[in-house]
Amino acid sequence: MPLKPLIAGNWKMNGDTASLGEIEAISEVVSASPPRADILICPPATLIFQAAQTAAGRIAIGGQNCSAEPCGAFTGDVSAEMLRDAGATAVIVGHSERRRFHGETDSMVAAKTLAAWRAGLLAIVCVGETEGERLAGDHQTVCKTQLRGSVPDRAKAGNTAIAYEPVWAIGTGKTPALSDIASMHRHIRECLVERFGPEGNSIRILYGGSVKPENAREILFTPEVGGALVGGASLKAADFCAIFSAAPQGT
Ligand code: PGA
Q1: Probe residue for ligand 1, chosen from 7, 99, 165 as the CB with the greatest number of ligand atoms within 8 Å
Q2: Active site residue 165
Q3: Ligand 1 mean position to 72 CA, how many Å?
Q4: What's the CATH fold of domain 6-245?
Q5: Residue nearest to atom 9 of ligand 1 (CA)
Q6: Among 124, 131, 164, 230, which is best to mutate for testing ligand 1, by the most ligand atoms less than 8 A from CB?
Q7: How far is CA 183 from CA 44, 176, 186, 191, in A?
Q8: Beta bridge partners of 124
Q9: Residue nearest to ligand 1 atom 7, measured at CA
Q10: From 55, 155, 160, 228, which residue has the greatest number of CB atoms within 10 Å?
Q11: Partners of 41 in the beta sheet?
């Protein structure tokens, strides 16, 4: 049975305890809505425990990053096991902001994905090209290389989702043409099937980059789009709820 779409919010470095009200508001709407999508919010690490308590199972809570190590002398890092202990069930790995500002390479992202699996978390592995790479016509090759290097063997639909996030669309208000989203998602699907066989058909491929209430429906109904990773528009419950209400029922 195909998995429901996954609509995930990435709060990035935004939010404090006052923002828990948004978690409560989203949870209320989700629990009163038909179960059309899996809903996840990834707040900053400081809020994961309280967010999970507030959500009380009505929506899932995730991390935005994790260490590849389970514990030890890694000052400032948080392990996948710690996220799980705080109430997370998923973690974003390899977001372009981590790749860019923290020098994360594909092999580091693969190690973090393994850590997520070790802790029983769903890993949302991000890939995506820069504007220059798209203009040069290299976008498919770039994403294929990132996928090959960032997603370890044995990925399954139950432990992994891919987020295609063109770097130039993140936080810019720009989105690719729907035909470009469709062709990249088809390309990613082919890469997943080539690598993982039939299981590759079930792994969800989310689109991320300037998803908002106004464009959510057309994006979520694009072939091979299995959900969305939403940044700015996930910070306010009203916007985020409008986005997941646009999701197709259980495709
Ligand atoms: P955005 O961010 O929706 O604000 O463009 C998406 C992301 O970075 O995951």
Answers
A1: 165
A2: yes
A3: 31
A4: TIM Barrel (3.20.20)
A5: 231
A6: 230
A7: 32, 11, 5, 12
A8: 92, 161
A9: 231
A10: 228
A11: 9, 61
To test the pocket of ligand 1, the residue of 13, 210, 214, 235 to mutate (highest count of ligand atoms within 8 Å of its CB) is 210
Tokens (6 digits) for 163: 């987020």
Note if 95 is an active site residue. yes
Per-residue model confidence (pLDDT) at position 167 = 97
Residues contacting ligand 1 via CB (< 6 Å): 10, 165, 170-171, 208-211, 229-233
Residue 251 has a pLDDT of 44
User: Does residue 203 register a pLDDT over 50?
Assistant: yes
> What tokens were used for 237?
């419950």
Query: pLDDT (tens digit, 9 = 90+) per residue, 17-60?
Result: 999 999 999 999 999 988 889 999 999 999 999 999 999 999 99
Alpha-helical (H) ranges within 102-203 are 106-118, 131-135, 139-150, 178-196
What 3-state DSSP class applies to 124?
strand
| Residue nearest atom 3 in ligand 1 by C-alpha distance | 231
Q: How confident is the model at residue 144 (pLDDT cuts 50, 70, 90)?
A: very high
What pLDDT does 173 receive? 94
Gap between the Cα atoms of 129 and 146, Å rounded: 9
Per the CB < 8 A criterion, the answer to whether 243 and 213 are in contact is yes
Domain locations along the chain = 6-245
Instruction: Extract the tokens encoding 247.
Output: 């999701």
The predicted structure's pLDDT at residue 249: 73
Taking residues 207-211, report their average pLDDT. Answer: 97
Q: Is 122 helix (H, G, I), strand (E, B) or coil?
A: strand
Kindly state the average pLDDT of the residues 108-117: 98
